[in-house]
Records
---
Amino acid sequence: MAIDQFKDIENGVSGGLEELEHPFLENVNKIVDSSYEDENDNSDGIGSIAMVLLSTFVAVCGSFEFGSCVGYSAPTQSAIRNDLNLSLAEFSMFGSIITIGAMIGAVTSGRVADFIGRKGAMRMSAGFCIAGWLAVYFSTEAWSLYVGRFFTGYGIGIFSYVVPVFIAEIAPKNLRGGLTTINQLMIVSGASTAYLLGTVISWRTLALTGIFPCVFLLIGLFFIPESPRWLAKVGLNKEFQAALRKLRGKNADITEEAAEIQAYVDTLRSLPKARLLDLFESKYIRSVTIGVGLMVFQQFVGINGIGFYASETFAAAGLPGNVGTIAYAIIQLPISLVGAMLMDKSGRRPLLMVSASGTFLGCFLTGASFFCKENGLMLEWVPILAVSGVLLYISSFSIGMGAVPWVIMSEIFPIHIKGVAGSLVVLVNWLGAWAVSYTFNFMFTWSSTGTFMIYAGFCLLTIVFAMKIVPETKGKTLEEIQVAICL
């Protein structure tokens, strides 16, 4: 199968979208602000980018919901325990059961998105999250908290797969990296908002705020098209043409692009239905290795341990504990925005390696601060090293390690195995999240220095993995990427 057969599938407009060759935020401004001599080109260019941006904004409401769910437990621990007389073990169950729900959501996410469509999957996820938040809000005892937290976990488990996949399938290739990165940016925004709001409003009111992103999502889905690639895959040809035209502009000539997508889908239909065991065939093993490997390294560099317990880390180093929570909330958002701007300019692999290098240095500095404290060396420098290390770690992770694995995951799998492969990759991510968050306190008690040095070692392995295994996908169509990897 020749790569050229499917080239420029996302480039449906010729003449109105040349400006997409420039970096992400620069593209948007230039496309919207420019005046083209040809009226049709102007209409198509603005119409296309406007609908793509609107569709992305609606989808990432699910990402914001993801962050809100994850960030909810940190600022509410003492209030919930006091109001409902929960033991530490009961609240720990409440905090961690979200990962169990997310694992189940991850297992079913690919099948759900393939069966009822990308928009249908997002609707279902929003429904589970709303039900979960209401259960938390009306809780008077532990079991209803558990049910609510489990439902929100299941919802975000599906969101974590379907949102980046949907964005990747609707976006032009030169905006795909930047737009998909908004997924991570909005997760960070949701978590930071929950952290900050949780310091000024009650835990029940905070639960109600988690419903708003779902409401915006459900309303927005009425105004955006379904993924054209999914519509073509399930044989809805009329809807496929309408969705593609809506994304590319009403006056755009979509004949060639539609034919190329249809030809690719027809080729995939000739292949047998994908099963989990099929992922281990030689032609798919590299894609699976890349997807699973990136998720393993994303988690085992320690993000959930360091992020969830940042305040405890700062307190152990001799600083006020609330410094960690506030700093964590504030610093992620602008750094993640920088990562979004760099994604389509620098490329995925260089950004990943720079990010992993920064997390290594952050872990090393934090580990060194605890080494100095344990051995009575340079005690006046311990707090400075600790805060510098943690903030450098969080900044570096946010600029690349947080987003790049999700972007690449959405790009590397052919559409006929994307469902089962995506479910596997997301499940691995949630298993890693659970393992790191569960073991962090035990490891920290064993050796605070050793904990951060182990994470630093995984950061180094991430750099090697990116250099040797991970391909550069910048500027390529999804079909070009998948054909090249599966050869």
---
Amino acid sequence: MAFSLLSPPPSSALCSLSSTSSSPAQFTGQSLRLWTSRSRTGPALPVLTRASSEKDDDKPAFNPFGFVTDNPSSRSAIQMPESPAEDGNVGQMLYRIEDKGKEYGSYVKSGKFRWFVRETGSPESRRGTVIFLHGAPTQSYSYRVVMSQMSDAGFHCFAPDWIGFGFSDKPQPGYGFDYTEKEFHEEFEKLLEVLGVTSPFFLVVQGFLVGSYGLTWTLKNPSKILKLAILNTPLTVSSPIPGLFQQLRIPFLGEFTCQNAVMAERFIEAGSAYVLKLEKADVYRLPYLSSSGPGFALLEAAKRANFKETASQISSGFASGSWDKPILVAWGISDKYLPQSIAEEFQKGNPGSVELKLIEGAGHMPQEDWPEKVVDALKMFFRV
């Protein structure tokens, strides 16, 4: 089905846009504000309506509002008023979701920065401390259910939002933090000191970019780790690089891509077999919707990352003869970014230390898709 630009628009213009476009545009929070700030009496706004001369089986035309209509969670979460030019939609949306997603969390000052850290259990928990590290472009919110159930099982749990992500500080590059691997490592070590994590602990890592940095930090600090659990993280040089991170590294396109207000939820859904429920999508969207800082933090981190070199460090660093601590690889087999073969290849590199647990029904973020199965695997593995 094709469309043509006509005016004036009907009052339900936005709601009539195609929900099956195969090439949705990146649409920023700033652009959304521009759209919603037009007055009712302002100039007529162009709207996509069907061209009478086109056939039904033609390909969809470019849809500038694709992020609203094409993404299932976004379609239910970001809805324009009946009159698209009505003011206040973005502000109302932020007001609706701004207090969501902070379960078990509080702010912790570490060095120059303020981290948002989730905590369950207590330092006296009988089974030890577990640190959960998220990947890009998400946040520690993904671990909320796993953390709750792990503390019920007797563990003391922490899950920080990396600097630049979630609810933690997002400093501008050049002002004390440039989003390099070395800086992420240094700030994480400072945070551990502030949290009072001095004894060896259990570590759980998932995801791209900062998730990988969690593993390279581990290779430099083996004495601080009791056991390591890895959920769907690039582990070998054959690990694919998702399109999002490739786009972020392209001049101009990267600057545009990083300001997509629904980038995180779309990334999650694209790597899984499931659509995020509205209340979850709200939380993943909130940092990117509320300011430009998280997007530019992700942009800087992606530009400075060497994905293949980092994957090579991880593959060789955990190979037989280099690492002797127990490793659990709990892998969502429906991951659309990282195939099961990556986990199997990693296990073959160190069969004596690596235990592979395949999680059916889970995708790139098994802690979000099926937290109960992740908890079962962790409890069995962390037995001491």
---
Amino acid sequence: MGEVDPAFIQDPEHRPKLSATEAEGIPMIDLSPLNSSDNISHSKAIEGVVREIGNACKEWGFFQVINHGVLLDKRKKIEAAARKFFAQPLEEKKKITRDEKSLFGYYDTEHTKNVRDWKEVFDFAVEEPMLMPASLDPEDKEETKWTNQWPEYPPELRVACEEYTEEVEKLALKLMGLTALSLGVPADVQQLLQRSDKFYQTQLLSTLPFPSALGVGRHKDSGALTVLAQDEVGGLEVKRKRDGEWIQVKPTPNAYIINVGDIIQVWSNDRYESVEHRVLVNSEKGTFSIPYFVNPAHYTLVKPLEELTHKQEDPAKYKPYSWGKFLSHRNLSNFKKHNAENIQLYHFRVSE
């Protein structure tokens, strides 16, 4: 394939192995018991699912869900439309290229951990316009609006995206509520986790075949919760908490892969941890996935929940930070390589 651009090259310790261990231990959680019509059975079913989610969040930070209620035809429609879009010539896709002022649209030169990813993406907001801070200045309260860019072709992409995300939002809110219950927080805090003042962002992600490359480099999700659909090719690898081994997540037909992000790690005061993961490119086939990101409103002050902190035995482990300012800062590294790692959650950890 000729000489590889140095921008794609990972440091030796972060390069993928030629073979990976499949993550048979990543929990598979069946959500069908939640649909029980019997009140007593329903209550017990919820308790069981909540317990499974809590254990998965503690041990892995990842789990899969089946019988989740998302209509399969909506998922098939968005995937078919997205594949048509990505199959176009580059000059057509670049007509809706995103930029540093608004992160919605097409992009193919994104960086993770200062290394360029082997991927192309199309990002859009579920609800628009999306309000974001106008600057990184902590004292600046001015807002800016991010709006979606939709391509002319394929014409069905916009409707497919809107119909699909409407379905996934229901699942995401259900999972946020179950995660809150697993933390043992009261109902009013559960409402905080499911607040209506929020923004959801979705990404259509495609990679081309390449031997031993990373479609998405190692990273932790900075938001609250991620609901991921991946195709049969897969490629997702998770860093196992107990030994740091990279584990491959085997694709399960029509399942969703769920992972907690930095915000839930802070809200839970480290009871649940956001875990590193990456996407390995297949050497023979291209891959396709749809991550759906659940996040609070930009002006949200992210900090450990008071119900989960105690001054002496379990004090707050993080200093409060503005979610919108944090995200805006992180997004700067999407467009160019920096000499130092961009802002991370550990920068807000309280010194012990």
---
Amino acid sequence: MENLYPRANFSLILTLFLIFFPQLLHSQTKNGAFSRQPPRPMVFTPHNRPDSDPQQVHISLAGIDHIRVSWITEAKHAKSVVEYGKESGKYNALETGEHKSYTYFFYHSGEIHHVKIGPLEPSTTYFYRCGGSGPEFSFRTPPSGFPIEFAVVGDLGQTEWTASTLQHIDSKDYDVFLLPGDLSYADGQQPLWDSFGRLVEPYATRRPWMVTEGNHEIETIPIIHPYGFRSYNARWRMPHEESGSTSNLYYSFDVAGTHIIMLGSYTEFDADSSQYKWLEADLANVDRKKTPWIFVLLHAPWYNTNTAHQGEGESMRKAMEELLYKARVDVVFAGHVHAYERFTRIFHNKENQCGPMYVTVGDGGNREGLALTFKNPTSPLSLFREASFGHGRLSVLNQTHAHWSWHRNNDSNAVVADQVWLESLSISKACWETLEDQGLSSSLKDEL
């Protein structure tokens, strides 16, 4: 069946949603009374390719030595195939995947294709074409070992600030893009998912984008769509199956000596939940001799001194914080609060040099503006905080040391406003000795 609302009628769709579902323009969690700096205007990216050609192309890591290529076609019978090779225009490999579409109220999506390709060599550029037609793209696989660099940014949206953030990230090379929730800010207006996919395509085709969901991905409508994440799960498939998870809302992956865990703030997380049990098993399987670094991303921050979204991550913190602490997780990144904040290492609301460092990076460029007001006096746990748009970079140099920096957006360039060196907790003999009955191998104890 053809799409009932072709691209030319985007304005009509938007108007109907604004009239009948104005609540969809807002976060599905209460923001509270706090001031925001107005964002720059929204950017709507139109579709300008033939209906059979791929659009909204992006890639993600999909297990060891594999990449998942995802894209959308307006044509319903386009092939779910990816041709690829190491030379431009010369494709010596082909993989076939699957495609499906979804319906949301009056909206009918295009065909969403997912194809897993590989095995691939590390630190290698591959050229690829989706569906047998359209433009050629290329990506570089991450390295097999250190050093590796991550770009980290949350609450991205699609405004002029978003475009600025993406340009600043792209001005310096990196290996993997990490996004802790709130991608398109579609909030039920499905054409905005399409616009977002086209906006990020120039970046997401060249480096893997690893994302987790935020509150703006929920998109429930009572009775009509009572279950959330329909659009997010269909469009942004992550390697949950490869990591033993039963939900696309939480998963993990290994890359170059790091173990990255993407948690779901908006699905069950108590001790009886599937997510909790999965996380417990996932952490138990990490070999810190082979994978010395563990980083966690989630949306609603567990620690926050901004007046925005106070306490919204508290229930999850109480449920899961001890698991991360016992596993000696190195850093926890969050979004949701539209500002930047870096904390010291913490456990149970107290400074603890064996706990994770907590960082909020909900400053990508969203349409809601910045959360300008922080609580006073400043907590001694909070080491740097600023309400500006920007992005972070995590450079893991070797098994023992990494460098974190936050880059504030300026009109023409990004400025390093905060930075810190990190030492992996995997090498801290004192921290491991404080654990009791955690099943730590004697060989690792002796090595430490």
